[in-house]
Amino acid sequence: MKIWSRLIRLISDMPAAEARRVAASRLGVVRIVALCCFCAIGLRVGWLAIDFSSEAKAFTPTIEQSVRGDILDRNGQVMATTVPVFELYADPQEILDPREAAAKLATVLTDMNEETIYKRITRDTRYAELAWRLSPKKYADVLRLGVAGIHGRRKLTRAYPNAMAAAHVLGGVNKDGQGIAGIEHHQNTLLASGTDLTLSIDLNIQAILREEISSQIDLFEAIGGAGIIQDIETGEIIAMVSLPDYDANHMGYIADDHRFNRATKGLYELGSTFKVMNTAMALESGVFAETDMIDVVSTLRVGHHIINDYHPEKTNLNVAEVLIVSSNKGSARIADKIGADIQKHYLKELGFFEKTALQLPELGAPLIPSRWGRAEIMTISYGHGISVTPVHLTSAIATTAGSGMLITPTLIKQSQPAEINVQVFSPQTTAKIRAMMRRVVSHPRGTANKADVNGYLVAGKTGTSEKISGNGYDKKANITSFVSVFPANDPKYVVFTMIDEPKGQKHSFNFATAGWVAAPVAGRIIQRVAPMLGVHPIDENMPEIRQSLMLNLPELEKEGAKHASF
Q1: Structural domain range at position 352
Q2: Contact, 333 vs 300, CB < 8 A?
Q3: How many Å apart are CA 269 and CA 367, to the nearest integer?
């Protein structure tokens, strides 16, 4: 009080002009102090609005989050894009009536029931996530509820417009927008920079492949399957399916079996499809000619095991016929004479000793024998004792039944054919292989009659093998596969189909082998996609076509393949 009294006396003793000047300056100081206080309060309010605890910051992206590049199919259709969404969260300490709030929120957040919401908004925390990818419309609906303590933040997220289509190819991203699987992971640096990526995948072809494989899985009550369509000239994968699959928009909530990529990571003994490579080795090495006769009648014993044929032969066969009728004994005798060095050389050249170069992190490394003795040489000739992925086999067939030049698979659209300088097989060898594979489909004794499509000259090879179980094989669980090229006279595409553990059906006479399961679905796929790929029907009886597929072989006895098998 004394201080104020002195100030009053001091001012009263001043001249009027001087008193007014002092009063004005002091009022200015008061104004500045008041303004600073208001600014401090404003900054604190703003800070509280955005900094709702360190726990919340751990779950939200930064404002500087960049727009990730789009992923497009080969025709420019969007497969993955970045869209704005809202992260919805609650501050439990701000909610007045949790029961009422939970009841209201449950009317909009239909993915959660009222009890789940209640448990989240009553946690002892300042942050409780309710949805991390809410559409603007739903976010607006939540705001209209007028629930205190519910907050949101605008963010960017990844969206996959085609849901399940090519889910295993695309993979996914985490909450921070970083690729964690599939092409999103492999090409993360490029996409994170905002650059678009065009894949080799054709979404229209992809849809057909998925539909047909899925239908065959259901028809034969199988547990899964896979399919691949590959361009022989460029190595581009036009379509690739692994079933069961998942919605790429919800990758974090799927079962492991659905997440598993059977086409690129699954390792399988693909059975008699390996006879194609075995025959090509025999011809290319000069150890055999296609007309050389092979003993398929007498007993073939290796160690303590006897190698048998699904349909025992009554007379010997030549090399070409061994492939056409799918003789295990014949293939084993051919490989036995070829020897380990030649066999390993070609298998290594074809890429069976390492992972493929495909642009995915989910790649399987082939399982090859640690010991390469006589038994291994023989069994590998018909696809046992070596486990590879479907994409390994598809690319090897593209080489073996194509130009003979090494084909490397790719998921990136190619502007021009890749420069290839590794000649694995000569054009003469591959031409003979195609002619044999065509007879596997077209000849009455071939094992893939059900894959024949009028006008498209399908050439292929079936494979049926028992699945490995413990230290042996499960006779009740088969992997059935079919690998084909078309058209046989000038192959453009490879088509691979695989059905995992099919069960025999009444219409298949209770058989569940590749000729009944994997071959027919390949035929349906080719019939549907060939026109879309620009492959037109041709007359197989045209002289030039017949000439390109002719083999200097005696006519096989025309005993029909009653139950196409291997």
Answers
A1: 206-548
A2: yes
A3: 9
Number of other CB atoms surrounding residue 246 within 10 Å: 19
- Give me the percent of the chain exceeding a pLDDT of 70: 86
Q: Is residue 260 part of a domain?
A: yes
CA distance 463 to 448: 10
Q: In the chain, how many domains are there?
A: 1
Tokens of 69: 């590049």
Contacts for 472-478: CB closer than 8 Å, 24+ residues apart? 477/501, 478/502, 478/512, 478/513
Largest CA distance in the chain: 137
Q: Which of 337, 330, 282 is nearest to 310 (CA)?
A: 330
Measured CA to CA, the distance from residue 268 to residue 551 in angstroms comes to 32
Is residue 364 within 8 A of residue 267, CB to CB? The reply is yes
Q: Does 13 fall in a domain?
A: no
Residue 181, helix vs strand vs coil? strand
Residue type, 393: L
Strands 78-90, 71-72: pairing is: antiparallel
Residues β-bridged to residue 84: 156
Is the torsion defined by CA of 513, 518, 521, 527 positive or negative?
A: negative
The rounded distance, in Å, linking the Cα atoms of 124 and 114 is 18
Give how far Cα 355 sits from Cα of 120, 274, 371, 389, 392, Å. 45, 18, 20, 9, 8
Q: How confident is the model over 400-416, as pLDDT tens digits?
A: 999 999 999 999 999 87
Which amino acid is located at 535 in the chain?
V
CATH number of domain containing 223: 3.40.710.10
Return mean pLDDT, the chain: 88
| Pairwise CA distance, residues 85 & 153, whole Å | 8
124 found inside a domain: no
**pTM (two decimals):** 0.84
> In the numeric block, which tokens belong to residue 196?
């678009």
Dist CA 78 CA 527 (whole Å): 26
Q: Does the pLDDT value for residue 563 go beyond 50?
A: no
Residue 485 lies in a domain: yes
Encoded amino acid at 469, one letter:
S
pLDDT tens digits, one per residue of 464-474 = 998 888 778 88
AA letter at 216: Q
* CB 361, CB 342: distance < 8 Å: no
Q: Which amino acid is present at 320? A: A
Residues 307 and 300: beta-carbon distance below 8 Å = yes
pLDDT-derived band of residue 25, with 50, 70 and 90 as boundaries?
Answer: low
Q: C-alpha angle with apex 71: 69 to 72, nearest 5 degrees?
A: 130
- Quote the CA–CA distance of 281 and 32 in Å, as a whole number: 92
Q: Is the pLDDT of residue 301 over 60?
A: yes
- In our burial notation (b when 16+ CB lie closer than 10 A, e otherwise), range 311-332 reads bebeeebbbbbbbbbbbbbbbb
